[in-house]
Specification:
The chain is of the alpha/beta class. The protein has 21 helices and 20 strands. Helix 15 (about 460-475) links the parallel strand 15 and strand 16. It is flat and about 105 Å long.
C-alpha cells in the first residue's frame, strides 16, 4: 500500500498539494487526472523519492520495485534492443559484476553470477526486448538501429519499452500513448491488462483509460480526490459530486445572505440583539464552501469557408508515394458532407495519403483533381516542430493572416487559452500542448472547406480534446482524420477507410470491429498477446494467490521452451560442470555472434545509403526531362541496394533463429 498523509507540495511559490490524503492499494490500476500544471508528474516524483514533500508524509513499502517511463531520451549509438534491455537495471548490474569477476578470475563469484543471470532470464532477454519493440511498432531491422537515428516520437516508444522491460511492483507511466498509433495503443492495453503490479498512469486518451484503469485520482483544488471505476465512471461521479457541491454552495450563500440581512435589520434592537449575535456566531462557524468549477479554458469553433463545393477532391486511378507508389490506383471522391476516419497499420500510407490530399505530394500516376474553390486546412503530425520559436503566438498569427485586425486575432487566440501576456510569449517557451493548440488555431482560422488532421491530439490534454471534439462536430466542411484517440474518432467521423497493402478501401464496420480485427491479427502473429505474455513473464509481482517468484516464472518459461524444442535429459550437474558447459556454449556461438554483428553494421550502412537516395528522390526538380539520366541511375542504385539489404536481413534473421534454437546450446 502507498499513501500520502496531509501532504503539502510546492514547486517554487506554486502550491500543488495542500494537506492532501491518498491511499493506493496493491494491484490497483489508477489513472491520475487533472489540469496541466496541477502536479501529476510531481506526484510521481514524490513516490520515487525524487521530490520531497514540503510537509506531511509519503509512505512507500521498502523494497518496492518501481519502473518509470522516462520523458526524455538523449541521442545514443546504442541499438534500440540494447536500450530497451537497459531498462532492466538489475540485469545490467549483474552483467557488470560478471565482467568484473571474469577480469579478477573469481570462480566462486562467476558461478553465483551465472546462476543469478540465468534466473533473470538471460537466455531469452534479447527476444523479450524484441517482442516489446515489435508490439510498439518497430520492425526487426529497426531493433538494431541506434537510438540517435530515431525521431522524438519513436524515442518515446523506446522509453515505454524500457519501462515495460523492467520487472516491477509499481509501474509509473506518464503519457505512454503519445506518438503511438492505434495498433500500438491496443497492444499496450493488452499488456497492461495482464500486468499484475500496481499501475499509476497519466493519459489524455479517455478511450485508453476506460480499458486499462479501475480507479481515478483527480487533482482538484490542491487535493487528491479518489473515484472508483474507469474514466467514464469518474466523469459521471465527478459531475454528480460537483452538482451536489454547487447546490450546497448556493444553499450556503442563501443562508449567509439571510443572516447578514437579519443582523443588518435587528442588531440595533434590544429585543433582537441576542438573536443577531447568535446568527453572527453561526456565520463565523460556517465552513466556507467553494463553488464548483467545471468551465473549460478552451472555447473555439472551426469556421468553414463560405463556398463549399459538393465534390471537393477527386482521385482517379491515382498512384501515391515518393520514388515508388505506396498506394496504388486509388479511386476516391471527397464530398462536402464527408467525415472520414483513416484506419491502418503504422507505415501503411495514411500520412502519405493526407499529404497528397493537401497538395504537398504530387501523384506518381493518375489524376488528383481539386475543385475550383477547394480550400484545405492541413494539420500535419509534426506541425508543432516547424513553428518559429523566436516569435510569439500573436506574431505568428499576424504574419499568417495579414490585414486581420489585432483584436480579432487576440479574441480567437483566447479561445485556445492564449490570453493576455500568454499571446505575446515566445513560442520557444511553450509546452508541447501549447504548440499543438497554436498549430490548430492557425489551421482553424484559415476557414477551410476540407480539414485534414494527422494525429491532432498528440500533446493535448483531456479538456482541449473535448473542445476539439465539439468544434469538429460543428464544423461545416469535410473532414479526413487520422488519430489513435478512439473517442475523438467515434464522435467526429461517420465513415472509415482502411489503408492497407497499397489500397484504400471502405471499411464496412465500426471502430470496435476494427479493434477486434487488430487484436485477432496481433494474437495470431505473436506480436500482441503472446509476445506480451512472454515479456511480462519475468515480472515478479504479487498475485491473488500470493507472491510469484522470479524463479517460478523462469521455470514456467523454460517448460514452454522444452515444449517446442527437442527433449533434453534432466541431468544434475555440479557447479564446475555447469561452468564448463556454459563456456563451451559461448565458444560455439561466438563466430555466429561475430557474423551477426557484421550483418547489423552492413544493414545499417545500406539503410543509411537508401535514406540518402530517398531524400534525393524527394527533390521535385529531379523529375525534369533534363535530369532523366540522373533519375534513372538513382533508381538503379536504389534497386540494387534494396536487394542487398533484403539478402542481409534474411541472413541476419536465419542466424538469429539458429542462435535461439537448442542446437547452439
Amino acid at each position: 500500500m502507498i499513501s500520502l498523509t496531509k501532504a503539502v507540495l510546492m514547486r517554487g511559490t506554486t502550491v500543488l498539494l495542500d494537506e492532501a490524503d491518498l491511499i493506493i492499494h496493491t494491484g490497483q490500476k489508477t489513472g491520475v487526472v487533472g489540469r496541466n500544471g496541477s502536479g501529476k508528474t510531481s506526484l510521481f516524483a514524490c513516490f520515487t523519492g525524487q521530490l520531497p514533500l514540503d510537509a506531511g508524509t509519503v509512505s512507500v513499502p521498502q523494497g518496492l520495485r518501481i519502473s518509470q517511463m522516462l520523458q526524455e531520451t538523449a541521442g545514443s549509438d546504442r541499438s534500440a534492443r540494447e536500450y530497451v534491455i537497459d531498462g532492466d537495471r538489475e540485469y545490467r548490474r549483474l552483467e557488470r559484476k560478471l565482467r568484473e569477476a571474469e577480469a579478477n578470475g573469481d570462480e566462486n563469484a562467476l558461478t553465483m553470477l551465472h546462476d543469478a543471470i540465468d534466473e533473470r532470464g538471460a537466455y531469452d532477454i534479447e527476444n523479450r526486448a524484441e517482442q516489446l519493440l515489435s508490439g510498439l511498432g518497430f520492425t526487426t531491422a529497426e531493433c538494431d538501429r541506434p537510438v540517435e537515428a530515431f525521431s522524438g516520437g519513436w524515442r518515446v516508444r523506446l522509453n515505454l519499452a524500457a519501462a515495460l522491460m523492467c520487472p516491477s511492483d509499481l509501474l509509473l507511466l506518464d503519457e505512454p500513448t503519445n506518438h503511438l498509433d492505434m495498433e500500438a495503443t491496443l497492444w499496450l492495453e493488452q499488456w497492461l491488462g495482464r500486468y499484475e503490479g500496481t499501475l499509476l498512469i497519466v493519459s489524455h486518451d479517455r478511450g485508453f483509460l476506460d480499458k486499462v484503469i479501475d480507479s481515478v485520482i483527480s487533482l482538484e483544488n490542491y487535493k487528491t480526490i479518489q473515484y472508483r471505476g474507469n474514466y467514464s465512471a469518474y466523469e459521471k461521479q465527478r459531475a454528480e459530486r460537483m452538482a451536489q457541491q454547487q447546490a450546497f454552495f448556493e444553499k450556503q450563500q442563501r443562508r449567509k445572505s439571510e443572516i447578514e440581512d437579519f443582523v443588518r435589520r435587528f442588531r440595533a434592537k434590544a429585543s433582537k440583539a441576542k438573536q443577531a449575535q447568535s446568527r453572527l456566531k453561526e456565520l463565523n462557524r460556517m465552513q466556507e464552501m467553494e463553488p464548483a468549477h467545471a468551465d473549460s479554458p478552451f472555447s473555439f469553433h472551426l469556421p468553414a469557408a463560405d463556398n463549399i463545393p459538393d465534390n471537393l477532391l477527386t482521385l482517379d486511378h491515382t498512384d501515391i508515394g515518393y520514388s515508388d507508389p505506396i498506394l496504388n490506383k486509388l479511386r476516391l471522391v471527397l464530398r462536402a458532407s464527408d467525415r472520414i476516419g483513416l484506419l491502418g497499420l503504422n507505415g501503411s500510407g495514411k500520412t502519405t495519403l493526407l499529404k497528397s490530399l493537401a497538395g504537398q505530394l504530387a501523384p506518381l500516376a493518375g489524376e488528383l483533381l481539386p475543385a475550383r474553390h477547394l480550400k484545405t486546412g492541413y494539420f500535419a503530425q509534426h506541425q508543432v516542430d516547424v513553428l518559429r520559436s523566436d516569435c510569439s503566438a500573436m506574431q505568428i498569427m499576424q504574419s499568417s493572416f495579414p490585414g486581420v485586425r489585432e483584436q480579432v486575432l487576440r479574441d480567437y487566440l483566447g479561445g485556445f487559452d492564449f490570453r493576455g501576456t500568454k499571446a505575446d510569449s515566445l513560442v520557444g517557451l511553450f509546452s508541447g500542448g501549447e504548440k499543438a493548440r497554436l498549430a490548430l488555431a492557425l489551421v482553424a482560422f484559415s476557414r477551410p472547406n476540407l480539414l485534414l488532421l494527422d494525429e491532432p491530439t498528440n500533446h493535448l490534454d483531456l479538456e482541449m480534446r473535448h473542445a476539439l471534439t465539439v468544434a469538429l462536430q460543428e464544423f461545416g466542411g469535410a473532414i479526413v482524420l487520422v488519430s489513435h484517440d478512439r473517442h475523438l474518432l467515434m464522435n467526429t467521423v461517420d465513415r472509415f477507410l482502411l489503408v492497407e497493402n497499397g489500397n484504400c478501401t471502405e471499411f464496412d464496420g465500426t471502430l470496435a470491429a476494427y479493434e477486434k480485427r487488430v487484436r485477432k491479427a496481433s494474437a495470431g502473429s505473436g506480436n500482441g498477446a503472446q509476445a506480451a505474455r512472454k515479456t511480462q513473464g519475468v515480472n515478479d509481482v504479487k498475485g491473488s494467490s500470493g507472491t510469484k517468484s522470479g524463479a517460478n516464472h523462469i521455470a514456467a518459461q523454460r517448460s514452454d521452451v522444452r515444449a517446442v524444442s527437442p527433449p533434453e535429459p534432466e541431468v544434475l550437474l555440479d557447479k564446475k560442470q555447469r561452468r564448463q558447459l556454459a563456456a563451451a556454449r559461448r565458444e560455439r556461438v561466438a563466430p555466429m555472434r561475430t557474423r551477426l554483428k557484421f550483418l547489423e553494421k552492413e544493414i545499417e550502412k545500406l539503410q543509411h545509403r537508401l535514406s540518402g537516395i530517398d531524400r534525393r528522390l524527394a527533390d521535385q526538380e529531379l523529375y525534369d526531362e533534363a535530369r532523366k539520366p540522373e533519375l534513372t541511375a538513382l533508381l538503379q542504385d536504389q534497386g540494387q541496394l534494396q536487394a542487398e539489404l533484403t539478402a542481409s536481413e534474411e541472413e541476419w534473421l536465419a542466424l538469429g533463429a539458429e542462435l535461439e534454437s537448442g542446437n547452439t546450446r
